[in-house]
Write a structure and sequence with these properties.
The protein is an alpha+beta fold. It has six helices and 16 strands. The protein has two domains: about 5-75, Roll (Structural Genomics Hypothetical 15.5 Kd Protein In mrcA-pckA Intergenic Region, Chain A); about 85-270, 2-Layer Sandwich (Pseudouridine synthase). Strands 7, 8, 9, 10, 11, 12, 13, 14, 15 and 16 form a ten-stranded mixed β-sheet that branches. Strands 1-6-3-4 form a four-stranded antiparallel β-sheet. The protein has a two-stranded antiparallel ribbon with strand order 2-5. The longest helix has 12 residues, at about 145-155.
């Protein structure tokens, strides 16, 4: 049985080292704790701030609160490696494989693109936008707070053009279709184009004007064409072997740092196809 620890520890003495406090409270080995710290499942509240902490020998103050969210199954997961597509120093653009999270949770961040990018480039990483864990494709990561702010504004102002591919069962019954249907009470528009129909499957190009949570999955399911592999809005069950057949394949925008036009496309060999 895999061990799960969710524990709050209040430090009782000045200059106690984080790893010693954790070892005494959890009875985990220091080797296991070093790995846990690196994988991001330990948090420190000092004063009013609570932050993820990785420094093994960090000295603590009396009253500091340490939170550990240790789940052996999560921490033993091995992420697929993302591929760097473009490095602009202040931000980078990646191919995120299916199965990689956009960002971490309290249980760790070693399977998230933000952490993988941080370790690969040795830079701080900030989330700018999200792709679902099950969705593959192009994703951007900021490396300065200014870039994170400016790029996030481009997304919120709809100044970043995003194109996806999706595969659905059956013959899509329109060559083109615009879906204008609110999601969670918010305006949402998706433009759908049929690209190919083979073996009772349709390959669709999807352009979105808005970026609501699960927008493409909800919109296609709403017109009775759920994406293949969609366990949430389609008919795929938990044992379904195939990845969600949704992929971000094209991104273009004007760089907020130098005003250059940036266009990133997935190579054809990486794209979904029938």
């Amino acid at each position: 049985m895999q061990r799960i620890i969710e524990q709050k520890i209040i430090n009782q003495s000045d200059q106690a080292l984080l790893i010693d406090v954790l070892a005494d409270a959890t009875l985990l080995s220091k080797q296991a704790l070093k790995s846990a710290l690196d994988k991001g499942c330990v948090w420190l509240k000092s004063g009013k701030k609570t932050n993820r902490v990785r420094r093994v020998k960090k000295p603590l103050k009396t009253g500091d609160e340490v939170f550990i969210y240790f789940n052996e199954k999560i921490l033993s997961s091995t992420p697929n490696e993302p591929e760097l597509l473009l490095d602009k120093k202040d931000y980078s653009i990646w191919f995120k494989p299916a199965g990689v999270f956009a960002q971490g949770s309290k249980w760790g961040d070693h399977c998230s693109l933000t952490r993988l990018a941080e370790k690969s480039l040795n830079k701080n990483s900030f989330l700018v936008h999200r792709l679902d864990r099950a969705t593959s494709g192009i994703m951007m990561v900021a490396h300065t707070k200014r870039a994170a702010r400016d790029l996030s504004k481009l997304f919120s102002d709809r100044k970043i053009n995003k194109t996806y591919l999706a595969i659905v069962e059956g013959k899509f019954n329109n060559n083109t279709l615009t879906i204008n249907k609110k999601i969670d009470g918010k305006h949402a528009i998706s433009h759908i184009k049929l690209l190919t129909y083979v073996n009772n499957k349709s390959l669709l190009e999807v352009r979105i004007e808005t970026g609501r949570k699960h927008q493409i999955r909800k919109h296609l399911s709403g017109v009775n064409y759920p994406i293949i592999g969609d366990r949430l809005y389609g008919s795929a069950d938990k044992s379904y072997p195939e990845d969600l057949q949704l992929q971000a394949v094209h991104l273009n925008f004007t760089c907020p740092i130098n005003n250059q036009d940036i266009v990133v496309k997935l190579p054809s060999q990486q794209k979904l196809s029938l």
